[in-house]
Design goal:
about 260 residues, alpha/beta, six-stranded mixed β-sheet, 10 helices, about 25% strand, disordered C terminus
């Protein structure tokens, strides 16, 4: 499956990162990161485990403070926001966690309704029910609405986790290792869902992964994070046509061709 590249609206910048640095003691994780994400664009951040990919998105949503540099999301400098402003910004950002972060004691219906009940107290029970059913139908799992998370497969849990994020109709989606722990066929389904979300909800996304099949199938642009900086950016073909040995070794170790997984 070859990715159909979307033409991003380069007049509208939804994320801007300049000279971002972050260390933990003597461990220098980010060493001057620059990145822009435009409206309607899926940007894949690729890198080995421990290269700072997850640290990057935690800084974007204000869970970590940068040591140096600037991070602007939807026109707001994240580390300058107070708690209330940060909360309002986070309502516009969907965060799809690696483990789906579902509440095991709640049904699928209750899991999806929870963000609406917590953030929009003026909504009626009928409005919440309608929104819950719609977003669950959008990810192809309306039939699971009264099941418990323990009854779902790993792929279904991922889909429900994404649905719970989409119910707030975010402008930006952040996916943290969306195919981690999934078999190859289920991974392809999640890749397709990420593209469907982009189409249906008109989201701009950052997809954090080390899965090259995911990168190839979901990314309009690929940014390769190595040694705390983005080594290169471009389409999948542009990035991996490079002669840099570090990029080629990453490709050779990780890549599973579409022919092998379809």
């Amino acid at each position: 499956m070859k990715r159909r590249i979307h033409i991003a609206d380069k007049t509208q910048k939804v994320i801007s990162i300049e000279n971002l640095e972050k260390s933990f003691g003597t461990l220098h994780v980010l060493r001057g990161v620059d990145l822009e994400v435009f409206k309607g664009e899926n940007v894949v951040v690729l890198g080995r485990s421990g290269t700072g990919k997850s640290v990057l998105i935690k800084i974007m949503v204000g869970l970590l403070k940068p040591d140096k540099g600037m991070v602007s999301v939807l026109g707001q400098q994240v580390d300058a926001l107070n708690n209330n402003q940060l909360r309002q910004l986070r309502l516009k950002i969907g965060f799809s966690f690696q483990n789906s972060a579902l509440y095991d004691s709640m049904t699928v219906r209750e899991n999806l309704a929870f963000p609406l009940v917590r953030n929009f107290k003026q909504l009626t029970r009928k409005e919440i029910s309608t929104a819950t059913e719609k977003v669950l139908d959008d990810v192809g799992l309306l039939h699971t609405i009264d099941q418990m998370p323990a009854e779902l497969s790993g792929g279904q849990r991922k889909r429900v986790g994404i649905a719970r994020t989409l119910i707030l109709q975010p402008e930006i989606m952040l996916y943290d290792e969306p195919t981690a722990g999934l078999d190859p066929i289920t991974s392809l389904d999640i890749n397709s869902l990420i593209n469907e979300v982009q189409e249906q909800y008109h989201t701009s996304s950052i997809i954090i992964t080390h899965d090259l099949t995911c990168a190839r199938q979901t990314g309009d642009r690929i940014a390769m994070l190595l040694d705390g900086k983005f080594l290169t950016q471009g389409t999948f073909e542009e990035v991996f046509d490079a002669d840099d040995e570090r990029i080629q070794s990453f490709y050779n170790y990780n890549f599973i061709t579409a022919d092998e997984t379809s």
